[in-house]
User: Fold these one by one.
Assistant:
Number 1:
Amino acid sequence: MQISTLSELYNRLLPAFKTKKNDFKKEGIEIRELDLWNYLKENVWKNNRNLTLYEMINDIFNVDINKLNSYINKTK
């Protein structure tokens, strides 16, 4: 399956973002799917090309909450 826009990619990854958001919520941490998307897009995937969907989903599930929180605090 070819994904040609960032919007398509976001929608394809949205179930993983929702799952990770719910995992954080169980730990008492409120995060938006868009925060996860923007953090990963701007910090983890920025210089990577030809990532597989598997690699991106793996990054979502293994995101470092401290780095994510730091990113969110900087962008507010």
Number 2:
Amino acid sequence: MLLDIKQLPPVRIASFVKRILIMMLNCDSSIALDFCAILTWIFKRYRDTFIGLIEQENGFGIYNPSVQQPDHSGAINSCLWELTLLQLHHSPQIRKWVDSIKILLTKH
């Protein structure tokens, strides 16, 4: 899906990423590392979408993952707080990945 479409709406991309990050907080390390590979590609391809989300200290919106339409989830208006929790992950590889993603998304 993400590989075939040239340009997706930023709100859908942000919602998809938020869902994956939340799953990473609750899954096994090996699965979380697989998600890291997917998210790295997404963060590189849609970097402009996420620069604002990583720089916000506190998001000005509330993310609601239970809505049916990702356009109405509020993902684009909330920050990526999941990355802060993943920095405390027991796997050093995931902690290292979070550091590299934060550098990627804050580098202008």
Number 3:
Amino acid sequence: MKKTNEYQKSYLTVTPNSGHRIGHKLDDLITGFILAEWYGLNYLHSPLPDKMWEDFFGFGEGETSFYKDFRKDLPIISCTPYLGVRYISPRFRFLFKHIEYLDYRIRYILKKIPVKKISEWREPDFWEGSPFSYFKEIFERNSEREVIFCFQRGKRVMLYQIYEWGQQGKVDSDLYLRVIEKLRTKYFSQEHPKKFSYFDTSVISVAVHIRRDDASVENQRFLPISYYKKLLSNLSKILADKPHEFHVYSSGLDREMEEIQKELNPVSSQLRYHPNESAMEAIHHMAIADILVVGNSSFSHWPGFLSSGIKLYHPHFHMFNLDENEWVEVKEDSSFNESHFISLLSSSQKGIDFSDTHAKLQAQ
């Protein structure tokens, strides 16, 4: 890996993918934080389309923004899924604004072509993050140039990747934590009217996200209610002699919300429901909960990364092999390493004594 000081004169920005939900756009922005930190580049902020979300997450504060005429003397290295890596000289800077649209059109056309080999041509698996070799080649090839690197249309690197690469010695082992700390500092340093708490601080708060609305088995965003019933039942047993509350967050049709309540009510008397709650309020409360049960959705992935609490997650998409100091893997049958979970909760800010519970588990 090149030394970071070789790149210090160059810049990097990532354009949030248009036409997608806030979770996808956050995946893009965090790519900018990661790559700038990884290679010691000057970060240029490309804002989210909706300033409301910019203000909520604290993005752009104290950062230089990227705009079409920024450093017109520098070439742009444009990286997209279908057009690939393109060198745009200052003379042809005007072409840059068309890159995203052209890449979108190519993808649209390829998906319409029925011939199997053609439809699979350059079909990149970029949503879950590009491989280490992809970034290594791009940056090392341009290490002697002063340029602006720009990643667009969902070309990204994910947090799970840099955590894994750090474990493997491919990147600095603390890169993941540096990026996470930057993300958390931005979020919690920014005041916002939606950042308040209705949690009872005298009890353990457990936030639970259940994705419904567009979730389906086909798109792999659906977790059956049976998964949540068993998981909450397991948590109820562990927390039985500790004051606690479950806060359930979900959005969808009224009948879907009613079905969730009907199924979960027998599990615990400590359930609090927040159907179709304001997105910002839900995200913030998931981020500040002592425990977060993550759904198959970026809507709760991101509160999980913002949170310093304990997160329980079912591996899927780009959510696997996460930092075991904060994340607990839950299997399909809703089981998880209860001893590990208890040890994390005992050492958390609440500092709760679970010695009796731990002894019972050891005896089983």
